[in-house]
Design brief:
alpha/beta, six-stranded mixed β-sheet, four-stranded mixed β-sheet, 10 helices, globular, binds ligand LHQ
């Protein structure tokens, strides 16, 4: 059973998912990847969960693909043909990245240590990334003859622009959390000791907000990257029209006018 690969804690409306292979810096095996996708699916389907918080056990967030996993580890036997690692992406990484990016609730990453390769892509694919000051990001792919995957080629230039994205991806150097925040790669960096509480407070704050509007905000921003300005304006109007009929808008606007705290319920 793979349950131990991810620790799950429920904190009110926040579901904490902690990658749990600390002995291998939470390197991603097929078991862990499959289980993580299932856990995201379960959080998406659970009406009482309004935010996911993802972090790593031990001293790392995730060192990316587990290179000793039989699906990717090069065979030492000269007679054995090389494996098609594209299959692993098709069957594990693509469904995971798509699940993450289309969650109906926000996902916060608390990056507690190194995030390398696909581990970095996983963190950067979350909606709000907060890192401890000793955390770092490594685009480790080029060092083993690969390109950024799990969304890396899409995310990096959009987050930091082409020049910095290519610098990171080509050189594969370690980027400290403070530099990542300064570049706009991540939202915030906090002292290590404050990371769990800060990340949980952010997740709780998001969990109390109008969930559907948050998910549509992410979707609208992702889609707007493909649209021209006028198309984006029209898309905004269409989405706003839908949200305007939803209970959360009625509650939010009424609470403002009544000078009280809103209670959002839509999901
Ligand atoms: C690991 C790993 C690891 C296994 C540390 N695997 N054991 C690729 C292929 C195919 C298809 C799909 O997509 C991908 C995407 C990718 O993610 S490619 C990139 C894969 N990741 C890497 O290349 C990073 C490899 N790791 C490192 O460079 C270092 O471990 C970093 C810089 C992350 C941390 O360095 P240190 O803090 O010095 O730790 P360490 O290297 O001593 O690692 C501690 C243990 O974790 C060690 O095991 P051991 O038994 O010796 O204590 C490592 O072997 C193990 N580990 N990363 N990816």
């Amino acid at each position: 059973m793979s349950e131990h690969l991810i620790q799950i804690e429920q904190h009110g409306a926040v579901r904490l998912l902690r990658l749990n292979r600390p002995e291998a810096l939470n390197a991603l095996t097929t078991g862990l990847l499959g289980h993580l996708r299932q856990m995201l699916e379960a959080a998406a389907e659970d009406g009482a969960t309004r935010c996911v918080l993802m972090t790593g056990a031990g001293r790392a967030f995730s060192a990316g693909q587990d290179l000793s996993d039989p699906h990717v580890a090069p065979s030492r036997d000269p007679g054995t043909p090389p494996k098609d690692i594209g299959h692993l992406l098709e069957h594990y990484y693509i469904p995971l990245a798509l699940r993450l990016r289309s969650m109906p609730i926000p996902v916060v990453a608390a990056v507690n240590g190194v995030a390398a390769g696909a581990g970095a892509s996983l963190a950067l694919g979350c909606d709000l990334v907060v890192a401890g000051e000793s955390a770092s990001f490594i685009q480790a792919f080029s060092k083993i003859g690969l390109i950024p995957d799990c969304g890396g080629t899409w995310l990096l230039p959009r987050l930091v622009g082409r020049a910095k994205a290519l610098e990171m991806a080509l050189l594969g150097d370690r980027l400290k959390a403070a530099d990542a925040a300064a570049l706009g790669l991540i939202a915030r960096v906090v002292p290590d000791a404050e990371l769990p509480d800060t990340a949980m407070a952010l997740a709780q704050k998001l969990a109390a907000m109008p969930t559907r509007a948050l998910a549509e905000t992410r979707r609208a921003m992702d889609e707007a990257l493909k649209l021209d300005f006028e198309e984006a304006l029209k898309r905004e109007a269409g989405l706003q029209s839908q949200l305007g009929f939803a209970d959360d808008y009625l509650e939010g606007a009424a609470a403002f006018l009544d000078k009280r705290k809103p209670e959002f319920k839509d999901r």
